[in-house]
Design a protein that fits this description.
There is one protein chain. The protein is mainly alpha-helical. Helix content is 78%, strand content 0%. It has helices spanning 3-31, 39-63, 65-95, 101-137, 159-165. The longest helix is centred in the last third of the chain and has 37 residues, at 101-137. The chain is elongated. The chain starts with a helix and ends with a helix.
Length: 166
């Protein structure tokens, strides 16, 4: 008989023992009431006994070393499976010369850094322009060598001209 079959039979026996004990406690709780109890009170006490017995049995089961070991093994296998599938998919993407998730993450990080740098530069330019506006509003003379920018009106392109250029 293999070890996995023996482990499974031991775990099944432990699980069966927990349920048997819980139903035994449940029947003891249900039969411990006297005949003078009112039916609604009797039902409340039975319900309370059932819930208490179930709570204890589930607490014992969930805290049992067998259950915790099996959950740990299951979680380890799930993590290993996820890593394996990620590796396989990454290799397949690399072989197809498609971008991997790591490549996309690196690109997103670079774009975020560029975005931050551009926003910082725009804020600095905005502060410079605000300082220049405040200086010219007070009647300050422009700095030496500063040229005044001439604004040209925007050119309008008619529909005919746009079609000719195409």
């Amino acid at each position: 008989m293999s070890t996995t079959t023996e482990d499974f039979s031991e775990q099944s026996a432990a699980f069966q023992k927990i349920w048997t004990e819980s139903f035994t406690k449940l029947m003891q709780a249900a039969s411990s009431f006297g005949p003078n109890s009112a039916p609604p009170e009797l039902l409340r006490e039975i319900r309370s006994g059932i819930l208490t017995a179930l709570a204890k049995s589930w607490d014992e089961f969930l805290r049992s070393p067998q259950f915790q070991d099996s959950m740990k093994q299951w979680m380890d296998q799930a993590v290993a499976f996820r890593k394996t599938t990620q590796d396989v998919l990454s290799r397949a993407r690399r072989e197809m010369q498609a971008p991997t998730s790591n490549d996309i993450d690196a690109i997103m990080l670079s774009v975020r850094h560029m975005e931050t740098r551009i926003l910082n530069r725009l804020e600095a330019l905005e502060q410079q322009m605000a300082g220049a506006r405040n200086g010219s509003a007070r009647g300050a003379a422009p700095a030496k060598g500063a040229r005044r920018a001439r604004r040209r009106p925007a050119r309008r392109v008619s529909g005919r001209t746009a079609r000719k250029n195409q």
